[in-house]
Amino acid sequence: MTNEHLNTATLAEVGEKGVIAAIQEVAPSSINGDDAAVLTIGPPNTRTVVTTDMLVENRHFNLAWSTPEEVGHKAVVQNFADIQAMGARPIAVLFALSAPPTTELSLVTGIARGIYERIQEFSAELVGGDLTAGDSIVVSLTAVGSLGGSQPPLLLNRARPGQKVIASGRIGYSAAGFDLLKKFGREDVPVEFQKLVRAHCTPPLMPDRGVVARATGATAMTDNSDGLITDLTTMAERSAVTIDLNASAIEPDHRLLRAAELLGKDPWKWVLTGGEDHTLLATTTGDNVSGFRPIGRVIRRTDSPVTIGGEKPKWVEGWGSY
Amino acid sequence: MTNEHLNTATLAEVGEKGVIAAIQEVAPSSINGDDAAVLTIGPPNTRTVVTTDMLVENRHFNLAWSTPEEVGHKAVVQNFADIQAMGARPIAVLFALSAPPTTELSLVTGIARGIYERIQEFSAELVGGDLTAGDSIVVSLTAVGSLGGSQPPLLLNRARPGQKVIASGRIGYSAAGFDLLKKFGREDVPVEFQKLVRAHCTPPLMPDRGVVARATGATAMTDNSDGLITDLTTMAERSAVTIDLNASAIEPDHRLLRAAELLGKDPWKWVLTGGEDHTLLATTTGDNVSGFRPIGRVIRRTDSPVTIGGEKPKWVEGWGSY
Q1: Which residues form a coiled coil (chains A, B) (predicted)?
Q2: Percentage of residues in chain A with pLDDT exceeding 70?
Q3: What was the pLDDT predicted at A292?
Q4: Residue B36 and residue A49: Cβ atoms within 8 Å?
Q5: Per-residue model confidence (pLDDT) at position B42
Q6: What is the pLDDT of residues B132-148, one digit of tens each?
Q7: DSSP 8-state symbol, B91
Q8: Are A32 and A128 in contact (CB under 8 A)?
Q9: Which one, A174, B89, B164, B169, has the greatest CB density within 10 A?
């Protein structure tokens, strides 16, 4: 078959071996292809870090708005943010997919290409996976990371009073982008809001922020996946501290304000409960860490696990699965 | 809520945090609960081995026949067989699940309990996962293994002429059990065939067979997941050899013969194309390895990648995803 025919062929027409070969063509790896993948994680002392995320069509992604490449990209960011949030460096991913037999091959190779493009920025490899028929499209990505040295990982229970709270990445953009997509669809979102839409469809993530933060005095880190207040509440409760945010450091910027005006929404809700930004949120005793900005401080536990200028947040609920 | 109420509660009623807490109760681990899990794989030189498998309801398992515990059990065996097939020892699993919000919590805790019971036999831990709503029940399990020492892993391309081919585990039982279940349902399968049904619902897997085989001279290994001929053909083609099986070492035993008679099937089809037995299949220059039996030998490449007593097999097609 020519490439053109392959692109409109279905998974059933191409067959399992053909699909796997097509994935390996867009995401080549010398490790992939045996019963399991063998990884050399690093020098002695290096620990292995693992995490997994499942994305379900029409819940975590919508192919009316997102290209398959973007779905792959987002799956990588979700997983790699979790690896970074331990202070580790992502080195490999496994890609499992369920899809109906009538699915076009180009969808699968598109997701694989998106994964490959994104992991290359981190010098990571797609080392294996699984492929199965199913009624719906479900992507399950697993990331493997490398945690060098003998320092502890960045844990949720290691925030300490007196530390600064720092953040790498926008907050509230993904939720705003999602609301814009629901209102306008991808094509008709006003140009000035494309950055919000991209934050939802292809959330950015800077390599090595977790490693650098751990090397320069951070002790606790998480990522904003379920909502700023929800995720910081988990950290504050595990650490038995209160996290007090500076309102001016997290307040909605001009883009969020204008989008909120257009949609008739409260932009603070996006900021405080939005989730899926995959902003890295850390506590540190060290100096400023490049790529991070200060957004608050850790104090002794008060009535409330997370406060903004000492007050309870206006919005607290985050995203849950059910 | 009392435990009794919890068991009939749905995921939506219990909420994401409640479901995760319930999973951690049946599968406790000190590592689980942060953004990602940090694993100490072993002494210097130890490599990390990873694999993943996705199980879709009504394709890979049927809750009319299998208990949730059995689904968890089978998912572990599928993954751990792949880890063992590299000569490695499984040490951890990640458990991702998509399920409708109306699903009973007891289904999820049942799967988790099945995972936990099975991994304990391997001294492995459930260290993390993901939980999401979706239209169908999809289980995605990832296994992490430890490959000690500097010897190479057991690869598909390392079978060499002159080696023996050895097997650990039954061959054809899972496919026979599946046909019996389709005909009779779980309750009404005649007692004499329960072992075949169990081979399908809870395939056995002996710990450490991969490690022992690697330590005693095996060079190539895979597991019978897609069908004996299919899986050995992959090994033979990657190694550029022919694998010649002894008919008498793989011929259907009395159970398979009687089941075939009852169902009017050819028992050789179960043996040669059945799959899902997760029999470990290795090639070795060493002595007999405990838990394995000889089933053939590796010879120079002939016309056919896999032969039985020098002849082409009667059945060759295996299970594919599409």
Answers
A1: none
A2: 96
A3: 96
A4: yes
A5: 86
A6: 999 999 999 999 999 99
A7: E
A8: yes
A9: A174
**Tens-place pLDDT, residues A62-76:** 999 999 999 999 999
Q: Does B15 touch chain A (CB under 8 A)?
A: yes
Task: For each of the domains in chain B, give its residue range(s) and CATH number, in order of start.
Answer: 1-30 (no CATH), 35-148 (3.30.1330.10), 163-308 (3.90.650.10)
Assigned token pair, B47: 């490599």
pLDDT of residue A288: 82
Residue A251 burial by Cβ neighbours in a 10 Å radius (0-12, 13-18, 19+): middle
Of A37, A50, A56, the CB nearest to B127: A50
Q: How many angstroms separate the most distant Cα atoms in chain A? A: 67
Q: Which residues of B touch A135 (CB under 8 A)?
A: 56, 135-136
Enter the tokens of residue B93.
């699993």
Q: What is the pLDDT of residues A230-271, one digit of tens each?
A: 999 999 999 999 999 999 999 999 999 999 999 999 999 999
Q: Which one-letter DSSP state was computed for residue A56?
A: E
* Distance separating alpha carbons of residues A283 and A244, to the nearest angstrom: 12
A1: confidence class by pLDDT, cuts 50, 70, 90: very low
Could you tell me the sign of the dihedral formed by the alpha carbons of A167, A42, B39, B108, in that order? positive
CA distance A122 to A207: 6
Instruction: Show the tokens assigned to A255.
Output: 């883009």
| Cβ within 8 Å of A, B 183-222 | 221-222
Place of tokens 């045996």: A34
**What residues of chain B, 48 to 87, have a C-beta less than 8 Å from chain A?**
48-56, 59-60, 81-83, 85-86
- Read off the tokens for A44: 């002695």
B128/A92 CB distance under 8 A: no
ipTM reported for the complex, 2 dp: 0.93
- Are B236 and B304 contacting, i.e. CB atoms less than 8 angstroms apart? no
Q: Which residues, other chains included, contact B174 with Cβ-Cβ below 8 Å and sequence gap of 6+?
A: B196, B199, B200, B203, B274, B275, B276, B277, B278
